[in-house]
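We store chain and fold; thus.
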Amino acid sequence: MYSEIVPHTVTAAEVAAKHPAGIVLSGGPSSVYEDGAPQLDEAIFELGVPVLGICYGFQVMATALGGAVRVSDAAVGGAGSLLGGQPEQQTAWMSHGDSVSRAPEGFEVLATTDDTPVAAFANEERKLYGVQWHPEVKHSQYGQAVLENFLHRAAGIPGDWNSGNVIADQVAAIRAQVGSGRVLCALSGGVDSAVAAALVHKAVGDQLVCVFVDHGLLRKDEARQVEEDYVAATGVRLVTVNAQEQFLTALAGVSDPETKRKIIGREFIRVFEKAQADLIAEAANDGDPIRFLVQGTLYPDVVESGGGTGTANIKSHHNVGGLPEDLQFELVEPLRTLFKDEVRAIGRELGLPEVIVGRQPFPGPGLGIRIVGEVTQERLDLLRDADAIVRAELTAAGLDAEIWQCPVVLLADVRSVGVQGDGRTYGHPIVLRPVSSEDAMTADWTRLPYDLLATISNRITNEVDGVNRAGNDRMGVSLP
């Protein structure tokens, strides 16, 4: 299935030229009345293409079509294509200051709340729809049903997405892009780079060489897992580069997380440039330089890094926001338009082992951004030990499939007084951030059993030197 997500500057002519099956309008400031607030070409509504407005996009639709917006759990009052099959009372996430006070003429009001007279509307004849809440986030109880109704019932897009079709399309695209060229892949061992590498290997075979950078920011025993699990499963050639000293030197004295991400992204590219030179020298008789670099970039990486017209920079991913301007490679990013659940499906279709496909996400910058403060060898070793304890206890409790991700964070610039044994200690806190998510875009904190938290806390404070408290950060859920 396919829909066109319209940026703020798009025109009706551009939309018509692309022949989209459906249009989604979303994003923007808090008020359509702000100076310079993004608007859109109203002729879009005359194209006969199904349109769904979300939050700000909903308010823009209302004002453009003659409705009214006032400065200012949803009750569903209608059915039809958009909200059909859903209960009259449901919980939805609405984060807005303004609200639609009057629907445009010819529109049916589908939902209201106590302070929002028009929380959703529809014009079935014109195939125009809008909701004030965010159906795409985990916190909206029936959000997925709203999106499915728009795609399948309103826009008439068949639900025929399958991993096999995506693999075939991407293999063809990779072959067309790469030809007979040689390719490097930035393999971290996580699901994203693993699936990207497997796709490229399926497309071009031995033209691909995977380079695994041990940047010193990995979790305990991670290098061995990459070399044994992935290579055994795929047969891909893997070159391991030990660059710990290079990364630690570059990160010395740096505490700001955005700066860390950009430094790590820059150093990654420098390492690959060196690997490129070494591999070219090795294959000098072939006379074919390595011109392509594979990355496991996903769509959430692009969105969160501000990659798109009108999108906000939530956090720079090292493979998006950290790339240097003088990059010497042409990028191959077969997963760039996909979400994590889709990538896992593709990985399973390709026959990758579940230990890799089902692995909890781990950020490319590694433990460097799970240390709040400067990154040093001592702090990395401390955090590695604590992280290994957490992962072992979650596995023993049978929670690996339930918890999408559990970052273990060292508050390195914070120390607190405690008593351990018969002595006074002055140690660091360790924070757990277990989260549940479906798409890596929104999350909710996972309610771990108290007995399990107690076990984890006791083990960390007893077994990891320099830590005197550990706990669950339920109020600060974030995705690294």
